[in-house]
Amino acid sequence: MRKISIFLATVAVILGMASCDKLKEPYIIEPLVAQSDTIALEVADTLNFDGKVVVLLEDYTGVKCSNCPDAAAIASQLQEQNEGHLVVMGVHPKDNLQNPSGGFPDFRTDDGDAWKNNFNISGYPKGLVNRASVIGPAEWSTAVNAVIGDDAPIRLIIKNEFDDATRELKLSIHSKFLADATGDIRLTVCMMEDNILGKQVTPTGVDTAYMHRHVFRGTADGITWGRAFDNSAMTIYAGRNFITNMKFTVDEAYNAEQFYIVAFVTNDDDKSVLMAAEKKIK
Fold first, then answer.
1. Could you state, in order of their start, the residue ranges of all structural domains in the chain?
2. Positive/negative CA dihedral, 237, 37, 187, 6
3. Cis omega before residue 125 (within 30°)?
4. Which residues of 189-216 are buried (b: 16+ CB within 10 A; e: fewer)?
5. How would you write the pLDDT of the chain (282 residues) with one tens digit per residue?
6. Which of 30, 68, 115, 186 has a 20 to 30 A CA-CA distance from 126?
7. What is the distance between the alpha carbons of residues 144 and 129, in angstroms, rounded to a whole number?
8. DSSP characters for the chain?
9. In Å, what is the CA distance from 241 to each residue of 10, 13, 28, 85, 128?
10. Inter-residue contact 88 to 216 (CB < 8 Å)
11. DSSP secondary structure of 195-214
12. pTM, two decimal places
């Protein structure tokens, strides 16, 4: 499905030092210092951050689920109402409602299937808001409104460079903890594609020109539950900064004009989402 070569590199640096020792994982950069493989933050990046949480809504859906288009419309409306503070991912697990036979698009992913099984999701459409609990579309607005406006525990910013000729995508994901975080704290990086025309079952029949939104294409590094920021720490204290660098080739099957990255930070102890971010590559 995707041909990806991943390069994850981070270097621990102390500001003002002329050199540093080579470290093994977890590759901490503290404080933030631009390195050769790092796309540095710009002043505008920090000025545009308003200090409020960005929420993740996962819409578990299917191309042969007749009620799923209405749920997708709810998700898109919620995102418009909470512009810049709500990230939506349309997740297609591996089951009969995602079967591409008959000319339907194939959006199935191993990661999505693992998430579905872990959260015991059945009977689409269903959703997760910051992975708190499995709820139906009628409850999404209430769940989103309950957390929208909260102070962000992490400043999460995605920087990227994309080469149109080679389709190479370089990422630097900057994570600054604004509050202490206790537990197994991880970063998940997702490949996304928007506005894909393809068949979809609807309440009135099969729509052959349905616009699929927020399609999750898989994790960028193949790590379903994310990479730990610091395997040695029980608590990541406020003020810590991390950079995760990544490089891969965007599959030719994906429309680069509609391709974007979603990153989110979780506490793997309870799978809860602490902060999310998204960034178009072009």
1. 43-174+187-280
2. negative
3. yes
4. bbbbbbebebbbbeeeeeeeebebbbbb
5. 444 444 444 333 323 222 333 333 334 444 444 456 899 999 999 999 999 999 999 999 999 999 999 999 999 999 999 999 999 999 999 999 999 999 999 999 999 999 999 999 999 999 999 999 999 999 999 999 999 999 999 999 999 999 999 999 999 999 999 999 999 999 999 999 999 999 999 999 999 999 999 999 999 999 999 999 987 788 999 999 999 999 999 999 999 999 999 999 999 999 999 999 999 999
6. 186
7. 7
8. --------B-----TT-S------TT----S----TT-----HHHHHT--SB--EEEEEE--TT-TTHHHHHHHHHHHHHHTTTTEEEEEE--SSGGG--TTT------HHHHHHHHHTT--SSSEEEETTS-EE-GGGHHHHHHHHTTPBPSEEEEEEEEE-TTT-EEEEEEEEEESS-EES-EEEEEEEEE--EEEEEEETTEEEEEEEE-SEEEEETTS-TT-EES-TT-SEE-TT-EEEEEEEEEPPTTS-GGGEEEEEEEEETTTTEEEEEEEEE--
9. 12, 11, 8, 21, 28
10. no
11. -EEEEEEETTEEEEEEEE-S
12. 0.89
Pairwise CA distance, residues 246 & 229, whole Å: 14
- Dig out the tokens for 118 from the structure: 């872990």
Residue reference for tokens 């609807």: 202
Q: What is the CATH number of domain 43-174+187-280?
A: 3.40.30.10
Cα 100 from Cα 103, distance rounded (Å):
6
